[in-house]
């Protein structure tokens, strides 16, 4: 079995991949948090697509942090044998507020 690099064209589904993302939360309570994330391996769906699960904490800021648990949207092909996922979720409430985190994760091999 050959190794797949992040720059290889890969048609179809690549098992056991994950995605990373670096984003900021929405402003709440007069501040933002950075959200550094790596997803779970893919979870195949009945429509022959897949999603990813993630959970973690945003970076400590303004004296507190927030936890999150979320699922991505389905795979979105972006060309060159790569795909991404959209995410949109809210953190836990802490210090009287919560934050929204949304965006697109980093591309991974496979166009499905």
Strand count, sense and barrel status of the largest sheet are: 3 strands, antiparallel
Mean of pLDDT: 92
Helical proportion, percent range: under 10%
The shape, in one word, is: elongated
Radius of gyration, whole Å: 16 Å
What's the end-to-end separation, in Å? 20 Å
| Strand elements, count | 11
Oligomerization: single chain
- Neighbour order of strands in the largest sheet: 7-8-11
Q: Number of domains in the coordinates?
A: 1
| Poorly predicted parts | none
Q: What share of residues are in beta strands?
A: 35-45%
Number of helices: 0
SSE sequence, one letter per element: EEEEEEEEEEE
Q: Helix- and strand-based class?
A: mainly beta
Describe this structure in words.
With 112 residues, the protein is an all-beta fold. It has one domain. Helices cover 0% and strands 38% of the residues. The protein contains no helices and eleven strands. The protein has a three-stranded antiparallel β-sheet with strand order 7-8-11, with no helix packed on it. The chain has a two-stranded antiparallel ribbon with strand order 1-2. A hairpin with a 2-residue loop joins β7 and β8. 23% of the residues are buried.
Quick structural summary:
By secondary structure, the chain is mainly β. It is 0% helix and 38% strand.
Could you list some keywords that capture this structure?
two-stranded antiparallel ribbon; 11 strands; mainly beta
Topology:
Elements: E1 20-24, E2 34-38, E3 43-44, E4 50-51, E5 53-57, E6 67-71, E7 76-79, E8 82-84, E9 86-90, E10 100-104, E11 108-109
Antiparallel strand pairs: 1-2, 3-4, 5-6, 7-8, 8-11, 9-10
């Amino acid at each position: 079995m050959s190794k797949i690099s992040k720059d290889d064209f890969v048609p179809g589904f690549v098992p056991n991949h994950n995605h990373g993302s670096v984003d900021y939360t929405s402003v709440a309570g007069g501040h933002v948090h950075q959200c550094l994330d790596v997803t779970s391996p893919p979870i195949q769906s009945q429509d022959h697509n897949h999603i990813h699960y993630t959970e973690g904490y945003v970076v400590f800021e303004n004296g507190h942090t927030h936890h999150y648990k979320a699922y991505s949207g389905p795979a979105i092909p972006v060309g060159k044998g790569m795909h991404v996922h959209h995410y949109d979720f809210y953190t836990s409430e802490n210090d009287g507020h919560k934050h929204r985190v949304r965006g697109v994760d980093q591309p991974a091999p496979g166009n499905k």
